[in-house]
Amino acid sequence: MQVLIDSKLLDGLHSGEESVYTDVFHQLQPALVSYAMQYIIDRDLSKEIVQEAFLKLWEKRKTLSKGTNLTAYLYKIVRNLSLNYLRHIKIRDEFAKSESQFISEAALNYVALKDKSAERLLEAEIMERLQKAVNKMPPKCRNIFSLSRFDGKTYKEIAQELNITEKTVENQINKALKITRAEMQEFLPVTLLMYSFLCL
Asked: For residue range 60-117, what is the model confidence (pLDDT) as tens digits?
């Protein structure tokens, strides 16, 4: 979901209207959490990072200008915070040399940190590649995937909304994952990408 800052939204953000801020949060938070999980395989930590990203948005709201792609702006903040967190944990573990190092390596995607292509990856490229994958999906598959990936709905909620079984939802999501992995595998580790989508 692309959110561009128009005059009304800009005025609301600049003046600190909580209702405007809350509306943006509810629109973008689910997808941002999923994006953070592509770096940090932990939903609670990812939610905390997204919370921090929105705090930074609040602090810098008066520097925003009309026409800014608010979605890309927040994705960039989330990415930087995620990479900073990975660096912090990696440095801590290198000095600790204890059992906690194994636990951290199991929970964090060090591959994303070591992969220099991830450092150069722009949020716009990720969104564009994901959109290409979505466009390749059959209509039914695309609809179910979008409800799960972008709207943050559970399999049960999707099944009820579309009047289908949860098994059908699961099958369509698996089909969508195969298409998505093929389109995005050069950017993210395949196993990490699978995990982040399946945890929605």
From this structure: 888 877 777 888 888 899 999 998 888 887 776 666 555 455 455 545 555 555 555 4
CA atoms within 13 A on the CB side of 175: 17
DSSP assignment of 160-182: HHHT--HHHHHHHHHHHHHHHHH
Q: Strand pairing partners for 64? A: none
Whether 1 contacts 31, CB under 8 Å: yes
Domains, the chain, with CATH or none: 7-118 (1.10.1740.10), 122-198 (1.10.10.10)
Q: 119: which residues sit within 8 A by CB, 6+ positions away?
A: 83
C-alpha–C-alpha distance, residues 123 and 146, integer Å: 18
Q: Cα Rg for the chain, rounded, in angstroms?
A: 18
Helix, strand, coil percentages, rounded to 5, for the chain: 80, 0, 20
